[in-house]
Structures are given as C-alpha cells and as structure tokens.
C-alpha cells in the first residue's frame, strides 16, 4: 500500500509540474498563445553591401535581429556599428566555412592551433561536408570560443549564437561544443527542433531546463525563391504558428561588390539578397505583421529575461 501511495504522489506531482510549465510566450511576459517572431538577417560582416543593407533594414524595415560573421573581411565595420548602437540585437553567426569561389577567409584562431579547420590554402573549407569530414570537435570548440572572445574584444555584446550554413548543427560533437560555449558566456544558442531527426537525438537530453529550443523555423529555399518569393513570405507570415518562430533571411544590395563576392552563385547570391531586402523593407511586410497579430521579439529579450 505504501508503494502505491508513493507512486500516486509522484504521478500527482508530475501532473502538477506539467500543468505549471509555461510556454515561451508566458516566460517572456506575453499571453500563452502569442505568435512570437524573430525576424533575423544572417551574414553581416561578409561585405560592405551586406552590412549597409542590413543596417538600413534594421533601422527602417521589419528586421529586428541579425548575426555577425566574425572571421569575415567586413567584420570591423559592423562591429563599429554594434558598439555605437548597443541596443540592437546582434548575435554571432558562428562561421566554420568559406563558401564563395573567389572571396575567402580563415579562422580567427591561429592555423597552428586549429589545423583541422583549414584547407591547403589556409582558408576555412568551402563546404559543410568537408568540415564534417576533417574538423575535430575540440578544435571547433576552440574556434567558436575565440569568435565569441573576438567579438567581445571589438565591443560587441552578443545576444545569441547561431550557425552559418547550419554547420555546428550537423554533427553531435560540434553541437555539444556550441552549446557549451554559449553556456560559458550566458548567451542563448539557436537550436531548432528540426535537427533532432538528422542527429537522431532528443534535444531535451542536451539542453538544460529553461534553455530555449526553437520549435518553428522558416527560411526560403531555392525552388521557392525561383518560383515566387513574395508569395512564400506572405504565406509564411499569414500562417505563423503560436510560440517562437525564427525567420531567417539574407539582406544585401545587388551591387557590383556583392555580385563579385557571390560570383557563380544564384542561390543565396546577390540578386537573392536584394529580393529579401525589398520584401522585408516594404510596407506590405509591416502590414502583414500587424494584421496577423505577430509580436516581434529579440534574442536580447530572451537572453536578458531567461538566461541572465
């Protein structure tokens, strides 16, 4: 009888705990079923065009969050802007690849310290597959940590970490290193629920209670961009679920500089980024956010309320 009573008590406690568990919206101070949206621009620091367009759309358009590629050539420009605008939501786009054909960069860590991260020319690998094949998890962790340290050294207050080309989310040991570094600096890391199937894991076994897992992720793919980007973005905003959605875009001006950077690439190329800029700086985008009762939130808000 005593054993039965203990089991019943445990079951009741579990039921109460589940009932008391708050949604991400409630934890941030919003009604339970609020549609929360981080409208996020990737790849700042890759070029002047990327920086200029992304700054403009954060100031005048709908985008409220962005992430910076620390190893890239135009990092110092966007770092200066971040220092001068400490309230902006700038995270770090953890970068382990250098994908463009004629425009390259290496790690921020000395090549002698992270030799498995670089190719014969001393640059980061062009493809995610090469990183997965050759990079050691220990050296990935060193590079992630040093990208965070370098950003802080340049006066950036990182609101979150996310991953360029999804690299750190493609291998379990890399993901663990990424989460570990985020915890060291008390910075939330972008981890989407969708990676569970690819890694054959449950994120709840990796993430601590209270850490945020993004349940809904939206980003346009090549087929959708080629078909009708405006329709895709319009439908995505109209059908946004309740809870937290991370909406990833890439904004740059279609300039000669950006065309040279992305030479040979149509997907995620210069014209693609201009298309993103055009829609998310438009009155149509602002109207959709309002009409669909979408609440924009930032990683800064998540970090300061839930992590610190």
TrEMBL record:
The keyword Ligase does not apply. Pfam families: YdjC. One of its GO terms (biological process) is carbohydrate metabolic process. PROSITE patterns: PROKAR_LIPOPROTEIN. Its cofactor is Mg(2+). InterPro entries: Glyco_hydro/deAcase_b/a-brl, YdjC-like. It comes from the Bacteria. Residues 1-19 form the signal peptide. This is ChbG/HpnK family deacetylase. It comes from Niastella vici.
